Every structure is written in C-alpha cells, then in structure tokens.
Amino acid sequence: MERREEQPGATGAGAAPALDFTVENVEKALHQLYYDPNIENKNLAQKWLMQAQVSPQAWHFSWQLLQPDKVPEIQYFGASALHIKISRYWSDIPTDQYESLKAQLFTQITHFASGSKIVLTRLCVALASLALSMMPDAWPCAVADMVRLFQAEDSPVDGQGRCLALLELLTVLPEEFQTSRLPQYRKGLVRASLAVECGAVFPLLEQLLQQPSSPSCVRQKVLKCFSSWVQLEVPLQDCEALIQAAFAALQDSELFDSSVEAIVNAISQPDAQRYVNTLLKLIPLVLGLQDQLRQAVQNGDMETSHGICRIAVALGENHSRALLDQVEHWQSFLALVNMIMFCTGIPGHYPVNETTSSLTLTFWYTLQDDILSFEAEKQAVYQQVYRPVYFQLVDVLLHKAQFPSDEEYGFWSSDEKEQFRIYRVDISDTLMYVYEMLGAELLSNLYDKLGRLLTSSEEPYSWQHTEALLYGFQSIAETIDVNYSDVVPGLIGLIPRISISNVQLADTVMFTIGALSEWLADHPVMINSVLPLVLHALGNPELSVSSVSTLKKICRECKYDLPPYAANIVAVSQDVLMKQIHKTSQCMWLMQALGFLLSALQVEEILKNLHSLISPYIQQLEKLAEEIPNPSNKLAIVHILGLLSNLFTTLDVSHHEDDHEGPELRKLPVPQGPNPV
C-alpha cells in the first residue's frame, strides 16, 4: 500500500513540520498527546494527528506503527488510522490491492492475537470494514473464510488465542455494519449476505458454548458475539439452540451478565414475534428461573434479580399480543405474567433496596392494551382471567408507593428521594391507566380499604398505608371524571378523620382534595368538610405547594358556592401573605385563587375586599417609588406588580353567571357595572 508520495508542508505540532507525516513525526506527536503537561500542546498534537490519519501517507506509516517493538498506544494509532482509511476512503483503494490489504490485516490480527487487546480490536474493526466494503461480490464468503483461516492448524498462535481473535472479529462485524457509512442500496445487499453467513457463525458458537472444555473467557466472548449477531434480525428459530445454551449459562455467575444481554437482545428483535412456536418454547425456560430469582431476592443479590426480571419483561412486553393469541396456552402465559408481578412487587424500597420493579411498569400497559384490542368475545374471556390480576397489581403498586419509615427516609440522599418521587409518578400514571380496565370497582376497592383502615379499632394503622391509598385515589381523580362515583362522598367524609402526623401525608391529603374540586362544585354542601383543612395548611410553609394549588383549584371550580366562606378565605390568605410564608410563585397562585373567589361576589363586596387586600401593597409601592432605584427595591417592586397582575388576571366579573345558567341565558349581555379593577 506504499503508493503515494509524501507531501511537504508548513510547521505544526512540536518540532514536527505540519504535513510531514512520517513515522518519526507521528511518534513525536503521540508522545506529546499522551505525556506533555501543556494542554495547548496536547490540543495541537491532537489536531495534527487527526490530519495525519486521513493523509495519503497514513497507508505508509500505519503498518510501521504496528511493529512489535512499538508501545500499545502507538500501535493503536496505527490500527485506527487503517480503519479510518478503509471505512472513509475506500474508493481511493485500487481493486488490485484488495487481496494484499486483506492478507496484511489477517497477518497483523494473528500477531496481535497474543498481544494488546485494544490494538487487536481496532485491527478487527478495520478488517470488518474491509469485508463489508467487499461483500458480496469481491468477497462472497467473507465470514466463512474468516472462520476457516483462524481454524488453520499451522498458525504460530495457540488455539485459545486464535479462537478469541476470531470471536472478536465476528463480534465487531455486525457492530461495524450498524454504524457503517454504506450507501442504502449496499446496506440491503450486505445485510442479506450477512444473514446467509450466520450459517457459518452459529454452529461454531454453539459448539464453543456447549463444549465442557471451553474456558470461561471463550464462552463469555461467544455470548457477546451471539448478542451482536442477533441485532441483524436473524430469524428467532435459527437462534433457538444458542438461546437455550445462554439460559443454561445463567447458572454461571461469570457468564450471567453476558447471557442476560444475549437473551434479551434475541427476544427483543422486532421480527421475533413471527416465530410463535419458538416463543412458546421460551416461556418454560423463563419460568424455570423462578427459583434462582427468589434465591437472589432472599440474598439481596440485586444484579441477579434485575437480570432475570429483564428477561421475563423482554418476553412479556415484546410478545404479549402474539402469546395471548395462543389461547390454548393461556395458563403458561398467565404464569409468566405472575412472575412479572413478583418482579413488580419485589421486596424493598425503590431505589435504595431494589431497582427492578420500575422495569415492569410498561409491561402492564402493553398487556392491558393487547387485551382490550381483542374482539368482544375473546376480550370477555381474558377480562375474566386478568381482572383479578390487575386488582392484585393495584395492591402491589400501592404497597411499592409507600414511604419508608421516617427514620429510614431521613438517611436517603436527595438524589434517592428524587428518584423515588419520579417512581411514584410512574406508579400514579399506571394506576390511572389501569382504571380503564377496572373502572368504578377500583375506586370502591380503594375506598373500602381506606374505610377499614381508618375505622378499625384493632391495630394502629401506619400513616404510610393511609397515604398510599389516598395517593391511589388522587392518581385516578386527577384525570378521570369521578363525578358519578358513589364513593366520593364517603371519601370526603373520611378525610377529616385522618390524623395527619407528617408532611408527606398532609401533602397527599391536600392534593387529593384538589383532585376532587370539580366534584365539590357539583356537591357544594361538602365544601365545609374540607375547606378548614386547606386553610389551616396554608399557614405551614412545608405544605406551601399542595395547600396553595388546592385552594386555587377550589376557588376556580367552586367560586359560586364560596361567598359564605369568602371573608374567612381572604383573611387567612392576607395573613399568610403578610407573614411571607410562601415563595414567590406560590404567592402568585394565591393571588390568582383570590381573583377567582372575588369574581363571584357583588361589586361592593369585591371593592371592600380589594381595599383591604391591596392597600398595604399600594402603600409599599408609593414608598418604594420614592427611593433611589437599586437591585433590592427593584425586586420588591416587581414582586408587588406580579401579585397585582396575577390577582387581576383571574378577577373577571363579566363571566358572572356563565357557569351556572343554560345556554339560552349565556348569550344575554351581562349588565356592565363599574369594573372593580
């Protein structure tokens, strides 16, 4: 490949002339890149080396940098330069040089089979790139040739070294294909060619994996190689023997992670659902992992339980429709669903004692969608089977959503608390979705549990249990119209009975009341049961967000029923605003709430309330306006103007009756008195 003239050039990295890309200069620049303490020199060296890699001279110096007397960093650069030249400048290579280039790469890979692993990998990537560019015409049986060449007995390298080098080459080939810059029409040809070539790869992998004499490092590599090939959408039935061997390898702790990766990749490929018979054979293999899973949970081995759960979820989530279609196998699929349920309810608090349960949540959406997509008759059969499963799921999710003890929670980091918050939001979304399957019976179920908990005299209940049940209610009521539910009156009646002992429970009580504000607008007689709780909470800075947002919802939805309570609401709000209990954004929300509230009063009432509410702020503004402008009084002025504009945004007397009257009255112009603003 020494076929280009070197080009002289200007000056550059260190003492090396900029474009004089000789072996010596490349070595100097690499030394500078790795060992020079000066960052500017490092950057200069890196730029120069990048130019060197794409220069015509790279064909010349790359081979020399691979000499056995060079250090691995230098050899690595040589191998990388070869890969760049082959993958990006393929059209520069004359066709009559393909064979010699191929032979040189094979020779180098054989040398490095017992040398530096990082250099070996780069050389394998370079040969893979060459193979992809030559397939299928210029090198029709590329993969079979690779296998044959590395199995030749006359090689100076020992059998294990050759085997590992071949496996490395076979592993990087599909990876290089996925990232290659081949034009679209070539990509299709090469993919088809590789699909045929897997016939030369899989028997070898099976043999190596099942051979008792294969050392662990070889089997590890085999699993990684299989994992790489299945992403080329190899038919699932062709992978059957290797998948079974990978299941067997799960018992070996050294091979566990690679086996999980291989199985999950094989099961998750989009095309797999066409091979229903193979999928049905996989169910018993997955169910066979249950003892290992329970053992792992008992021993607190999070990695093993996580890996087994990934396999169960991959099969259930990707193929629930195909497996539900096999009605005669409904029991084995139900057993898989129950195994996933075990993973959802895995003991311990997420994310501190376990990280597995969150993997399963999407599965429950998918399963429900698939059941509800069947025609009426089949759906009725599956509803009968799966409704009890989904009721059990609700219990499991509410148990997982429970806070740990106050003492334990105190030890959690802020990051763990945030992850737990997000996890609870995911649970909330799942419960809301499950409502579609279970309907009103789900609310009755939650209400009965809460009622039993709050009225039982036998055992003292934990606040965590109460909070989780309310959280379930709130999750559903926030997005689903519960106006027709017959359990909400009972729930509103239960809320004042809850003895609120901590912030998390108080927050959830507030958010639950807020979620029921539309129901309260239709049942105004119940407002008095919950409004005192909300006004009381306004005075607690720890409940700032939940109490203010709940008051705002009540004032927006129920404003025509609030005049009897208006004086009290305004007085409490004024008090907390003056005491500066809340942060700026909550103060703004509170003003919006008061705007909604006042809109429903008579004009004289509005004016009377506005005078007492706004006068202190107007006086402050007058005082601030006389001061010399500075950053702190600017903030105060902006804050007051924000409060006033938020109040006026929602204070709208023109829409006085439109929520209460029929459409024929709504068209009448509202008698316009003076606007209180």
From TrEMBL:
GO terms for cellular component: cytoplasm; nucleus. Residues 45-111 form the Importin N-terminal domain. GO terms for biological process: protein import into nucleus. Residues 655-677 are annotated as: Disordered. Residues 655-667 have a biased composition (Basic and acidic residues). InterPro entries: ARM-like, ARM-type_fold, Exportin-1/Importin-b-like, Importin-beta_N, Importin_beta-like_NTR, Importin_rep_1, Importin_rep_2, TPR_TNPO3_IPO13_2nd. The keyword tRNA processing does not apply. GO terms for molecular function: small GTPase binding. Keywords: Cytoplasm, Nucleus, Protein transport, Repeat, Transport. It is found in: Cytoplasm; Nucleus. SMART domains: IBN_N (SM00913). Interacts with UBC9, RAN, RBM8A, eIF-1A and PAX6. Belongs to the importin beta family. This is Importin-13. It comes from Neovison vison.
